[in-house]
Design a protein that fits this description.
Blueprint lengths: L21 H23 L3 H28 L4 H19 L9 H25 L4 H21 L6 H18 L2 H4 L8 H27 L5 H23 L3 H9 L2 H30 L8 H24 L6 H20 L5 H22 L14
Length: 393
């Protein structure tokens, strides 16, 4: 902390490479709890309705993280007021996590108010940045207005009954999502920091991948030891490890750098929204792995659990295919085809493996994931390409 009180500063265009601050890493911890609660919610109801509810609650949590990340990317400072505001935001996310379990029923009002509180803090930060940085005032005002309209709809929603309440949530989220998309004229000279952004998204991906590891541990700790369950747990860990390998071996900022040089904002938008189905799929896959481990080893895996495992992993691979094809991560048409092929195999498995045991499905899924790592290693990267290094390097 360089001073007791300092205004927000514009971080765009700084020559020194930026990395996540200790405050940002601490802030991420509360999302570990929130994602864990979301996963617990899905674990209780793996039906289509349960999955839709999981996504509905995941979106506001994810968007809260996105809002804080993009603000810090452009305007971060390290004074007392900034630290206190981040602390308040962490409390609002903790409140979101507390209200997740019945967020679409008994605690929906608490969930809405928690989200509004987080947005009010963010809106205040943008207004403060606009006062301190005249060149960014157009952007900060646009964001403050758009986010305020969305927050107002969330407030109104607490006074109307379910399901109208959820309709207002959907409209408010659409306004939230549209706000940065419609701010193109303000963002051309205020593009996000190209070092900081991939690192932050990578850290959130790590948080969600951690749920798969937690699922393996939870499953092993609760199961009866019969040999097959241990094998299933090991195969679940292999899948998580392969997904880590596939994403982080290919993540890089080359596409963002090229977009920054040419002013193509579409790449930043694809980077932002293209990661959403990936992290949803990863979080759901963690729940699926736990159900695989806890399932009866000598009986066919249930239809809901089979679709949860295979469908969520298929969503991950389809998301990776999109990111490869658009160049958001390593641009490669071959890897795009490989990811799509993996998704197709997983969907066929979900449809056809009706009488398969949990270990048979876990083995097949692991083979699919391992094959993707093998294909990447066989193909390699062109000379001169560099993947992003560790965020703490």
């Amino acid at each position: 902390m360089t001073s007791w009180l300092q205004p927000p500063r514009l971080r765009v265009g700084e020559e020194a490479p930026r990395h996540a601050t200790w405050l940002e890493l601490f802030y991420d911890l509360v999302f570990v709890v929130a994602v864990s609660q979301l996963a617990h919610n899905l674990s209780d109801d793996t039906s289509i309705v349960g999955f839709v509810g999981f996504v509905a609650l995941f979106l506001p949590v994810w968007w809260t993280w996105i809002g804080a990340t993009f603000y810090a990317n452009r305007f971060d400072s390290d004074d007392i007021s900034r630290r206190l505001l981040m602390g308040i935001q962490m409390l609002t996310i903790a409140a979101l996590a507390v209200n997740v379990h019945h967020g679409l029923s008994d605690t929906s009002v608490g969930f809405a108010l928690s989200y509004v509180a987080a947005r009010i803090v963010l809106i205040g930060e943008y207004l403060r940045a606009g006062r301190s940085i005249p060149s960014a005032r157009g952007l900060t005002t646009h964001f403050a207005i758009g986010f305020s309209i969305a927050a107002a709809l969330w407030v109104i929603s607490i006074f109307v009954p379910i399901p109208i309440r959820f309709g207002l949530w959907a409209i408010a989220l659409l306004i939230d999502f549209a706000t940065p998309i419609t701010a193109a004229r303000y963002q051309r000279n205020l593009l996000p920091d190209l070092e900081h952004l991939p690192e932050r998204f990578g850290l959130f991906t790590i948080i969600v991948l951690g749920e798969a590891i937690i699922a393996v541990v939870n499953g092993v700790s609760e199961m009866e030891w019969d040999g097959w369950s241990e094998i299933t747990a090991a195969l679940g860990f292999v899948c998580a490890f392969c997904l880590w390998w596939i994403y982080f071996e290919n993540v890089g900022s080359a596409a963002l750098r090229a977009a920054g040089e040419t002013g193509r904002l579409r790449v930043f938008q694809v980077w932002l929204f293209g990661h959403l189905p990936l992290v949803i799929g990863l979080a759901a896959a963690g729940v699926g792995v736990e159900h695989l481990i806890l399932a009866e080893s000598n009986a066919p895996l249930s239809t809901l659990d089979r679709w949860l495992v295979c469908g969520s992993l298929a969503l991950c691979f389809l998301s990776l295919a999109l990111l490869h094809r658009t160049g958001v991560i390593f641009f490669c048409k071959s890897r795009t085809r490989h990811r799509i092929a993996a998704a197709i195999v997983l969907l066929v498995l979900a449809i056809a493996a009706v009488n398969w045991s949990p270990v048979a499905i876990a083995l097949t899924v692991a083979i699919v994931c391992i094959s993707q790592v093998g294909l990447d290693l066989y193909q390699g990267h062109p000379a001169g390409w560099q993947k992003d290094e560790s965020p703490l390097a």
